[in-house]
């Protein structure tokens, strides 16, 4: 399957992508891909180091005639989001990604593709390996753990790099040049409760919310996609108020930076309400389907009546559940504020990413983003208040800064000119709502001129992730011309 991908043009890029996708590389477990990248640099005979947190830096001198150009840093992250469909049998810790071609798209079979940020990594690898691509001196920076904390970028020390220009290859629209991004903070609410015995005469149900598209909690947050955790809570809220439903377990979502696609709850109701419960829930699901039919046409909810032996024996007490479902309803999800300075840009948002309730413990994990630090904390404090009112402990962690646009960027002017000449159209110069590493890297190297760009990728952070073949060809030509036109040293 990967062989047909290897035959795509540009072959040097797609071959490196296939090599990379054969290496398991989940966030927090990058040991194998770090070793892979270290071996790659050393086998090329290039100076290759691993810093104290695991970032890999490979340096390549300028090609003949380019020695007087500014040194550039080409940067991408090694880790990828691991998501799969529930019916896909796949072990991310041991298996390489199974790729295939679908018309203009490269996809993976039931899993994330790893184009985010594997195509950027593969681009840099292809250039490092090349013998006929003109370029200035290059410092290739491969960071770790971008997707779950950006600890690689945070741990990078000043003084390791000498480059004056940084090209971050981690955006997902080939007609965009990014000059700014949002910062973020993880918000985690947790609490304990004393379970109680399920009342006699109870009927058990397993409720499964599924079929949602999910997506990137930054780049896709404005699309109005369904959030499985909020939908599940909507159902539980109604059934609790009308039928006295009690929760035994909830497991919804997986990663903070992925809009949750699925949620499963095990609940009980009194036998007397059985038929009315199903009738009422079906009506609510139909309402939600009507709301989401444009953006999530495959959304569905399955109500599975449990056998008596599988009916939950322990449940959350009614008062604890009263506060929980109301706090979940109160907690903001989605766009919080649009930027007044950049048309169409989300300024602040929140993703209620993961909900776990079981065995007397509950945890709700969110990722709050904003390009403005004060509004980021405004959203985070709103969430904190909603959950503290129900008695939760709330922790803020993993905070990282946004990246402020540089209106005087020299490399931006060069790239806009190249794009116009190659495509007979102007690129969109934008700031994005995703969390790029540029903001963090800029704290270590404040004088570095930074730009982010990349090929078109759809559905990042979900099993429908795909990369456009034509776009990768367009992007590759763009990269090659940028390398030729890096300005001279001053």
Automatic annotation (TrEMBL):
It is an enzyme of class 3 (hydrolase). Gene3D superfamilies: Zn peptidases. InterPro entries: Peptidase_M20, Peptidase_M20_dimer, Peptidase_M20C. Residues 208-292 form the Peptidase M20 dimerisation domain. It catalyses: Hydrolysis of dipeptides, preferentially hydrophobic dipeptides including prolyl amino acids. It holds the Pfam family M20_dimer. GO terms for molecular function: metal ion binding; metallodipeptidase activity. Coiled coil: none annotated. It comes from the Bacteria. GO terms for biological process: proteolysis. NCBIfam families: aa-his-dipept. Belongs to the peptidase M20C family. This is Cytosol non-specific dipeptidase. It comes from Myroides pelagicus. The gene is pepD.
